[in-house]
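Priority: low. Protein: Sodium transporter hkt1. Input follows.
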Amino acid sequence: MKPLSFSFFKIMSLRVKPFWIELGYFTTLSFLGFLALNYFSKPRTLPSFRPQNLDVFFTSVSSTTVSSMSTIEMEVFSNVQLVFMTILMFLGGEAFTSFLRLKLIKKENKDESFSCKDYELGNVINVDDKLEDVIITNPIEDHSHHDHHDEIIKIKSIRLLSNVVFGYILVIILLGSSLVSLYIIIIPSAKQILNKKGLNLHTFSLFTTVSTFANCGFVPTNENMMIFKQNSGLLLILIPQILLGNTLFAPCLRLVIMFLWKITKRHEFEYILKNSKRIGFSHIFPCYETISIAITVVGLIVFQFVVFCSLEWNSKGTSGLSTYEKIVGSLFEVVNTRHTGQSVFDLSTFTPAILVLFASMMYLSSYTTFLPVYNYEEKSEKMKKRKGRSLMDYISLSQPSCLVIFTILICVVEKDKMKNDPLNFNVLNILFEVISAYGTVGMSIGYSCARQINPDGHCKDATYGFAGKWSNTGKFILIIVMFFGRLKKYNQRGGKAWKVL
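Result:
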């Protein structure tokens, strides 16, 4: 008799649409994270300060959806809470959730291929056998033999791919955290910062590495990476982790598979490379499309870097840094716009042009490509879907429409603050925060008491995000935005059925 958990997993993988599976996964993880942060561990600021339950839940959702939006300062959390947040970011990161999706794909294909015994084949084939040892006796039709054999290769390839993805994740996290620890041990200025903040070296290294690779953007310090802006070596260690975990995940994964194929000569690797669409894994693309993604990533980084240096080289945010530190800091800043959100500069000091540029970059999906990519298989599938559109195809909104709606809702909720504090609560700042949450980036312009028209004697500048000054209703709306943003891939074609004349 199969275990209950296995039966439930089978029902989930076969009966429930992927959107609802992922929504349930992130929602459950967020509530468990809230319980862990609020009831099973205590902040280190007790009894002087205790975060509100909504702020703790907001932080849990932000960690799970790897959005890194913040409403409370990071140094409030104890070492145990930081460990819990590390687990949430790891389990919610795109790399790990893609590994779970591979497990579901493998199970679905295995169940479809072996749902009934194929007596005509004369024997039962074990998918755990080596590909070269698969022998089919008493054939009936060459076509059926080919299909069955192809299914076996596919299942074995998916199983091998899941192992590669998990190994990829572990290697980068272990290597990355080791390099961060080594740097802090060697460089006195970095070590002095951790000692002053009362942060554990190993917790900081693992937390920062997982956050960076998962593209979450949280850092255990209140100032994020601004306090390390003169530690260029640390920034250079983190930049590859940002790219390997998100925008260059697909190209680097393909390179890893090509390398393993060259040294092992296993047919499964060749099958993965030549049948990327048939595998059904969203991070494996055909060769030309993969190259296009990589070129677009590099091109956008270079474009942002040139514009940023042109406009902000002598700005207030970059003052006090040497030429080398400005170059590394600027590169780190522009790489983070897609989609990590760590920052070495104060965004409130940037010109509006840079903020608009960053907002545009935050909106773009990880695998955006501006080179022409034509796929006959996808076009034929789209033509089939057009013949029988469901009601949801006609009522679903496009992603820009969703951003507009969320921004309007927050402006309505925060209308009193927009009237009394227009320099902080303006439409650009709110839109920037919404796009950052929807893009799961986490960058924020923040809130400044100096920008208040009617100065409040009790106002105190804080290092958390602009959303920290919103009402509870505004924060709750942003929580919904973070969930929408984490699952936005299911709405990429939203609004396509609409016809605007």
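The CA atoms of residues 446 and 466 lie 4 Å apart. The radius of gyration is 25 Å.
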